[in-house]
Write a structure and sequence with these properties.
Oligomer: homodimer
CATH superfamily of the largest domain in chain A: NAD(P)-binding Rossmann-like Domain
Strand order of the largest sheet of chain A: 3-2-1-4-5-6-7-8
Helix content of chain A: 40-55%
Structural class of chain A: alpha/beta
Shape of chain A: globular
Number of domains of chain A: 2
Number of helices of chain A: 11
């Protein structure tokens, strides 16, 4: 197939690498350096520096933009897009995005909302690596307005990319889960880094637990500010749940309630071991 | 040297493996299975099933017990301990431990309070591995009652074990830092696991961030309940700091304050990059 990619960053570039084995990949990006790099490094077959020409030559397009940019992309370019073009969108939040796009009445195209749950602490096509998808998770939103055949197309392409678990799920539940597994974890990591102010050289006193919990504090600020604000309600709800669980530990400590402390630890340990079993059963 | 180890678990066993290249290692444990395993697997030179004989034959002893057990060990066995025996203690908290031990008036022995900042999500001598120390951090408490020559002895043995940064520090500051880098991180991980109650199979929707933040939720409950409660005041203080930083994020989201949100992210990212630089400069 001919597959186009708009937005050639870490994910767009990794998709290109993953799919180029069996498909012809072209790309458009406003960043000419990214396109030049991708051509020179054999990541894509063809670079378009003109959006109209790119859109005229592609019927299937991975749209790899930040949520806010997706809406403005469609607003600004809707008249350039051919009828029946299929877009596979890959951003990390869905409910608000789908609402915003619905308002644009783009009835002459089809959009598949998907989320490859993968990433790295670096950005840009320079770090593109198809291995970030291997054995990973991929969510496809079963939106009523997306054609079933295109849901299946996105599914089979995700399989080709090497994802292990590909789930169809509704937008609201997706956003609740991602608020927890991805957004809350980043906010925790950032808050953890911000909560110690002593000037001692921490690098002499940390072990794996601190290193693991703070790795993602090296964050792509623009991307994540966009993701956080576009999933604000689900995120605030899950932060509140987390605060509540944290305060249970604090209270058990403050009241010397060892039994409660151990009960809380036991609950978490059991839940986590079930999660690890879930991972194992599928590998 | 002849070196004894009391408490042959993950850390005691790893110390044995690390030091056995140049020293003769014997061990005592109330768990006979651990001793038998260590002999059969060539981890120690000699196993003692009798504490009195062990104490009579060792002048330098790594005491690898949980904090609560250290105090009761000295209470119950002080009459068996030879004059001038040197103990190197390796637990994760110090202020309360040193206070409790001081009350016992053990003036005929010397105790070096140290903390190898290393561990794994598993316990027991069966998982002993000296590699958990390589390039790691080690803290030695410069307690006024410990002889300088024994602080130096603990220092040079930590070097032999492969630790990279060996710091001398006072007990109070050690406990404040560890409350942050080690104990808070574990409580965060446990609280994170406890804060989602939907029955969906999470293993289909998680990426590296969730896996990193929850790895340590597979916790050794007895050990950590002991560590938490023995460092209760420092831990409650740092939980409160963390709650405060977390609420800044929540408030910035709730009030749509994008500027504040980005400022908080920027602050964390910069702090974390300084921490990473600190690590790099020493490797």
């Amino acid at each position: 197939m001919k597959i186009g990619i708009i937005g050639l960053g870490l994910i767009g570039g990794s998709i290109a690498k993953a799919l180029r084995k069996s498909h012809e990949i072209s790309a458009f990006d406003i960043n000419k350096e990214a396109l030049t790099f991708a051509i020179e490094n054999n990541i894509i077959d063809k670079a378009y520096f003109d959006l109209e020409a790119f859109l005229n030559n592609n019927n299937l397009i991975y749209l790899c933009l930040y949520p806010e940019s997706i809406v403005s992309f469609f607003k600004e370019n809707s008249r350039l897009i051919k009828k029946d073009t299929i877009f596979i969108e890959i951003s990390g939040i869905k409910t608000k995005l789908i609402q915003d796009i619905r308002k644009l009445n783009l009835n002459y195209i089809d959009i598949v909302y998907t989320h490859p749950i993968a990433g790295r602490e670096v950005s840009g096509v320079f770090f593109a690596d198809e291995k970030i998808f291997f054995n990973g998770n991929y969510a496809i939103i079963n939106d009523q307005n997306t054609k079933t055949e295109n849901l299946e197309l996105a599914y089979s392409l995700a399989k080709e990319m090497g994802f292990k678990n590909i789930s169809k799920i509704n937008a609201k539940l997706h956003d609740q889960i991602i608020a927890y597994t991805s957004q809350l974890t980043h906010i925790i990591s950032l808050s953890l880094v911000n909560s110690f102010s002593n000037s001692v050289d921490l690098s002499h006193f940390t072990g794996d637990s601190y290193r693991d919990l703070t790795r993602i504090a090296n964050i792509n600020i623009n991307l994540w500010a966009d993701l956080f604000t576009n999933n604000k309600n689900a995120l605030i709800d899950i932060i509140a749940n987390f605060e509540n669980e944290l305060s249970k530990f604090k209270n058990a400590l403050a009241t010397n309630n060892l039994e409660e402390l151990e009960t809380l630890m036991e609950k978490a340990k059991n839940k986590h071991n079930k999660y690890l079993e879930g991972n194992k059963n599928e590998s």
